[in-house]
Design brief:
Radius of gyration: 20 Å
Largest sheet: 6 strands, mixed
Number of helices: 8
Oligomer: single chain
Number of strands: 17
């Protein structure tokens, strides 16, 4: 599949005030004027609460075309909730979300719920949303490393294979903006390196922007352009450091794995108390997240569901 041609910029892009139903009059035209032409999605001042509990507060995030942004944070820190707001699947209580005109998005959930006794082939799963030509189905499966697996049963797939099928389903939309929610969950280190390579290839092939969500606070995809650490608000941002030159890591996992992974070092000026409140740090060393947790779930929005 060849890289697709795109219009030069987000002419006619929409800006949505999160306090207003997105289907009603868009507001905030000033945001359109300041967006770079490569910008696909931009969020400013996003806030969201569930049952009186603040999940997100004052969150800013931008994803550009051709960029891989990794969003990290512990379980319950608001990562999946933020992703759903960016995609328009959930309304924020405060703040604004800007999206490029005619934006096509693809979403890969953390997991899916299905009855293991229910016969469901990969082909049937990929066509639940509508008919797909056989040639297109074969091309997408080959693209994600599952050539010739149309008839395989979903219930019999490994964790890595399941993530590839979910990715294939997202790619059927030919996305400009691809959101991957915990794609490495249940995948070993070698499998993670292969998936990272696949994601990088997809980014290059589709010329899309990628938001990759992870609860791993320190090891990220080497091709990541920016890392954002979230704990209900943005704690810090930065670029990962390559671990290619670490001889112990290369000896343990091999060069193919080491080349795909990188380390992210946090630089925080605050910590969090047991209730999630911000506690200023008075030393220069930041913290290691041991007490930087998010108990409970992420508003109940990290899991996909399949209905045959």
């Amino acid at each position: 599949m060849n890289a697709r041609q795109h219009p030069p910029g987000p002419v006619g892009a929409s800006t949505v005030d999160a306090t207003v139903d997105p289907t009603v009059d868009p507001v905030g035209a000033s945001l359109v004027q300041v967006r770079d032409q490569a910008t696909l999605v931009a969020a400013e001042g996003i806030g969201k609460s569930f049952a009186g509990r603040s999940i997100l507060s004052g969150v800013d995030l931008t994803v550009n075309r051709g960029e891989i942004v990794t969003l990290i944070g512990l379980n319950g820190s608001g990562k999946s909730t933020l992703a759903r707001i960016l995609l328009g699947l959930l309304s924020a209580d405060t703040g604004r979300v800007w999206r490029a005109a005619h934006l096509r998005h693809g979403y890969v959930p953390q997991s899916i719920t299905m009855d293991p006794a229910m016969p469901l082939t990969i082909q049937r799963f990929l066509t639940l949303g509508g008919a797909v030509a056989g040639a297109e189905l074969d091309a997408i499966l080959a693209e994600v490393g599952l050539a010739g697996r149309r008839a395989a049963q979903m219930a019999q797939l490994s964790g890595g294979e399941l993530h590839r099928v979910l990715l294939a389903r997202a790619l059927l939309r030919r996305p400009d903006f691809l959101v991957l929610d915990e794609p490495m969950s249940g995948v070993d280190v070698a499998g993670q390196a292969q998936l990272y390579q696949l994601i990088e290839t997809i980014r290059d092939t589709y010329d899309c922007g990628v938001l990759l969500i992870s609860h791993d606070l320190h090891v990220v995809m080497a091709a990541t352009d920016r890392v954002i650490c979230l704990n209900h608000h943005v704690c810090c941002t930065g670029r990962p450091e390559s671990i290619v030159g670490e001889p112990e890591f290369r000896a343990l996992f091999g060069a193919a794995v080491a080349d795909r992974l990188a380390l992210y070092h946090h630089h925080h000026d605050h910590g969090h108390d047991p209730d999630g409140g911000v506690v200023p740090l008075h030393d220069e060393h930041g913290h290691d997240h041991d007490g930087h947790g998010g108990d409970g779930d992420d508003g109940g929005h990290g899991e996909g569901h399949v209905h045959a």
